């Protein structure tokens, strides 16, 4: 018969004492025989399980556990660009095509096995085995690593300005390779020359990506701004770093001279006004200054004398000056051939990096970009023809306004098709530095043309980076016959 016996030390676990060679079972008060038998069976099962665990070699876990442990303890691998390992590859990958997700496994909390041995009392022949009480089954607290708290879903991270332009989602021309190939054929490369005419804009970042992509590709862009130096300053600094010869033009309001004064006096007053308004952050040796907008064509001889004096003042002050700013369809061919005008054309032709002719070209029609060609769009051809006839170097031309109607443009696809035709017209002439699409920005009476032109920025960027043209290598000249360029 067995009976309960407490150990002498209060800190030790209670044990059950089994007495050998004692026949019928006697019960301890409060504990019956069947309960004792159940406890003994439970103890036997536990002892058997513990013995099996202690026989297992701890350094050689089962196959499944070994794989899990290998994964959990594998050393960190530097993540570098490359391809993922194939699905059937074995061994540890050395290059990864991005960060793998963390392995999904759960590390169970285990405790070191405790060796429990049934001991016999040599004096009494009694065997002591453990009694498992409910208090001993309560697991101890395990310290669990606390994950880093994630930001709330509605939190907004402070944006970091991109150091580089956005990735181009289309294949661009290798312009350097194209130029090399054309030079071998006795031709040279010409790029798309269309850019933008800009006034005050609410979105100051609107043109940044366009400028950055063309600059990165080595393609010069054309940008004209009125009373808004900020985009020109960004382009100027970009140009100084990259060396790409972008064409930048600035004009302030107050752009018509006083026709009541002599040309020389009017030129002096007008020049001082615009020189002193020129933004100090802009470099006058880089940015062209345009001071006149659509003057009176009937005063062409007076304007020619005015231009001669202004040109001398501008060059003396270290500026690059663009004269006239004639409206589309102006002036008449004979206006280029007066004595004073021919003198100015010769001065401009001999100083192509300091003096330029500013023209406006455009059809005046949303339906037909070639309307009245070559008298509105393409009118520069007559200027070059007259210069050639008089043995004058073709002057630098800046088309500081280009477009359709002053308050409307065609749908984007049609607009790009019109730009493609105009690009073929301008490409053969290196003297034509660019054409500014009218208009981006706030202004009176322009309808919603700014919102429409905004939609051209991305398509024009793609067109510019995927197209190029060829032209004669100077001193060879392209023909001024307008029929060669008719759409």
Describe this structure in words.
With 487 residues, the chain is of the alpha/beta class. The chain has 2 domains: 1-57, no CATH class; 175-485, TIM Barrel, CATH 3.20.20. The protein is 31% helix and 15% strand. It has 12 helices and 14 strands. The chain has an 8-stranded parallel β-barrel with strand order 6-7-8-9-10-11-12-13, surrounded by 4 helices. The chain has a 4-stranded antiparallel sheet with strand order 1-2-4-3, with no helix packed on it. β10, α8 and β11 form a beta-alpha-beta unit. α4 packs parallel to α5 (230-242) and α4 packs parallel to α12 (457-466). The longest helix is centred in the N-terminal third of the chain and has 23 residues, at 33-55. The chain is elongated and about 130 Å long. It starts with a strand and ends in a 15-residue tail after the last strand.
Entry summary:
By secondary structure, the protein is α/β, with parallel strands linked by helices. The chain is built from 12 helices and 14 strands.
Form type: elongated
- CATH fold field value of the largest domain: TIM Barrel
Terminal residue distance:
118 Å
Oligomerization state of this entry?
single chain
Q: How many discrete domains?
A: 2
Number of helical regions: 12
Runs in which pLDDT lies below 50 for 5 or more consecutive residues are 1-31, 51-163
Helix fraction? Answer: 25-40%
């Amino acid at each position: 018969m067995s009976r309960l016996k407490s150990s002498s030390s209060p800190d030790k676990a209670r044990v059950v004492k089994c007495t050998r060679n004692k026949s019928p079972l006697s019960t301890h008060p409060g504990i019956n025989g069947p309960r004792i038998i159940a406890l003994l069976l439970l103890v036997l099962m536990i002892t058997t399980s513990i013995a099996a665990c202690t026989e297992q070699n701890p350094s050689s876990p089962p196959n499944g556990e070994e794989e899990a442990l290998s994964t959990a303890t594998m050393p960190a691998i530097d993540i570098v660009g490359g391809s993922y390992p194939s699905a059937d590859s074995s061994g540890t990958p050395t290059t990864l095509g991005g960060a793998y997700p963390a392995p999904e496994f759960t590390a169970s909390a285990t405790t070191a096995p405790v060796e429990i041995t049934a001991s016999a009392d040599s004096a009494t022949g009694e065997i002591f085995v453990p009694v498992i009480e409910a208090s001993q089954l309560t697991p101890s607290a395990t310290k669990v690593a606390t994950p880093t708290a994630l930001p709330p879903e509605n939190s907004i991270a402070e944006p970091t300005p991109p150091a580089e332009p956005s990735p181009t989602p289309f294949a661009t021309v290798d312009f350097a390779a194209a130029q090399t190939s054309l030079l071998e054929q006795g031709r040279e490369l010409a790029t798309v020359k269309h850019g933008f005419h800009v006034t005050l804009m609410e979105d100051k970042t609107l043109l940044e990506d366009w400028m950055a992509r063309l600059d990165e590709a080595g393609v010069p862009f054309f940008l004209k701004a009125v009373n808004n130096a900020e985009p020109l300053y960004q382009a100027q600094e970009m140009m100084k770093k990259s060396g790409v010869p972008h064409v930048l033009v600035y004009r302030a309001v107050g752009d018509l001279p006083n026709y009541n004064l002599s040309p020389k006096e009017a030129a002096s007053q007008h020049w001082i006004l615009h020189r002193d308004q020129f933004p100090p952050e802009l470099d006058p040796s880089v940015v062209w200054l345009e001071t006149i907008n659509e003057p009176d064509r009937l005063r062409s001889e007076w304007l020619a004398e005015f231009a001669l004096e202004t040109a001398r003042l501008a060059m003396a002050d270290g500026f690059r000056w663009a004269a006239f700013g004639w409206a589309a369809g102006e002036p008449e061919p004979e206006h280029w051939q007066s004595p004073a005008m021919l003198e100015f054309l010769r001065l401009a032709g001999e100083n192509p990096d300091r003096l330029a002719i500013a023209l406006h070209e455009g059809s005046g029609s949303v339906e037909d970009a070639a309307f009245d060609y070559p008298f509105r769009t393409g009118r520069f051809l007559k200027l070059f023809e007259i210069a050639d006839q008089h043995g004058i170097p073709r002057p630098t031309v800046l088309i500081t306004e280009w477009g359709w109607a002053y308050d409307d443009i065609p749908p984007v696809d049609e607009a790009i098709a019109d730009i493609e035709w105009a690009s073929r017209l301008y490409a053969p002439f290196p003297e034509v530095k660019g054409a500014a699409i009218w208009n981006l920005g706030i202004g009176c009476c322009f309808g919603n043309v700014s919102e429409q032109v905004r939609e051209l920025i991305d398509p024009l960027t793609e067109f510019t980076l995927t197209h190029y043209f060829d032209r004669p290598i100077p001193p060879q000249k392209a023909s001024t016959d307008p029929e060669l360029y008719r759409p």
